[in-house]
Write a structure and sequence with these properties.
With 320 residues, the chain is mainly alpha-helical. It contains twelve helices and no strands. The chain folds into three domains: 101 residues, no CATH class; 100 residues, Up-down Bundle (Receptor-associated Protein), CATH 1.20.81; 70 residues, no CATH class. The chain is elongated and about 80 Å long.
């Protein structure tokens, strides 16, 4: 009953805050709509900022945006969101983290089976879920990049050998290659069409896609642009090298799969034993629930199992 009351109060407070934000944004939009009309009536026209010069907004809430700009971690979060190709604002993600953290905190705050400090741990877990989702999307997109990039380099080398300039080849690849790599080639072609130098275009490409293969491609392209040489041969050899590297990573992944499976089995084994013991002899486990220190032992065991699982996954993870 107490947990339900806390959830109702928390939900009502959140809805009232959302309503207040909606009213404030509506009033602000109305004021912003009447201000240009008054300036036009007075004969004053302000030049509109272009899309390349417009400063990116972190949040639609002015106060929250001012707070986010003071935090250094926001830049890293924004960078991870760009790498994951998520069209979300930083303010929305941070508010979702606070909302989920508060919701998890309210759910476990008055539970008698949990040890002290479980509310803080629940808040951290709820706030970490959006960040975990962004990291998962980022890793999936990186894997797609690594799979598409060797074929894209070979296509680029063939088009350049046929006489296409680099900017035109970017545009053709952006139209033919599916997302996510095709989107990045279209961005590069648009930047070149707008007059951006090749060095800046390549630096932006590396900043958006933090993959080692992209760094090699950018280094080879910039080196050829400065010193000269046959870029087509370099691209073909780079594509062959990337394929061999992908095959090596596949072999390592297959060899480490046994260790990961072993870690998963060892992690689930205590849960399975506890379930079997509860079904066959529940009186042996009742001490953990009835004794005052029983819940501490339960959570200590869970912490040890989770720590062991993370250590095993860290050991079997091989970086190439």
């Amino acid at each position: 009953m107490e947990i339900a009351l806390i959830l109702i109060i928390f939900t009502g407070t959140f809805l009232l805050a959302a309503l207040a934000v909606f009213i404030a944004s509506f009033v602000q939009s109305r004021i912003g709509a009447t201000a240009p009309a008054a300036e036009g009536a007075a004969g004053i026209e302000e030049p509109e900022a272009g899309p390349l010069l417009r400063e990116e907004s972190l949040s639609s809430i002015t106060l929250w945006q001012a707070l986010l700009r003071r935090l250094d971690l926001i830049d890293k979060l924004k960078q991870r969101m760009d790498e994951a190709d998520l069209q979300w604002s930083v303010g929305r993600v941070t508010l979702a983290m606070l909302l989920l953290g508060g919701l998890f905190f309210a759910m476990v705050q008055d539970s008698r089976l949990l040890p002290p400090g479980a509310g803080l741990a629940a808040f951290v877990l709820g706030a970490w879920l959006p960040y975990w989702f962004i990291g998962t999307k980022r890793q999936r997109r990186r894997a797609q990049f690594e799979a598409q990039f060797p074929d894209a380099l070979e296509s680029l080398a063939r088009m350049m050998r046929a006489g296409h300039p680099l900017a035109s080849a970017f545009e053709v690849l952006g139209a033919e290659i599916p997302a996510p790599l095709g989107v990045e080639f279209r961005r590069m072609a648009d930047e070149r069409r707008l007059g951006a130098p090749l060095d800046q275009v390549m630096e932006n490409f590396v900043a958006r896609v933090r993959v080692d293969e992209v760094r090699l491609f950018v280094a080879a392209t910039l080196l050829q642009a400065r010193t000269g040489g046959r870029l087509t041969e370099v691209l073909e050899r780079l594509a062959e090298t990337l394929r061999e590297s992908a095959a090596l990573r596949g072999e390592v992944r297959a060899l480490s799969a046994q260790g990961k499976m072993t870690g998963t089995v060892l992690t689930l084994l205590p849960l399975g034993i506890a379930t079997m013991l509860y079904l066959t002899a529940p009186e042996f486990l009742s001490v953990l629930f009835l004794h005052p220190y029983g819940r501490y032992l339960i959570w200590a065991g869970i912490a040890c199992v989770v720590t062991g699982h993370l250590v095993i996954q860290w050991i079997v993870k091989v970086r190439i």
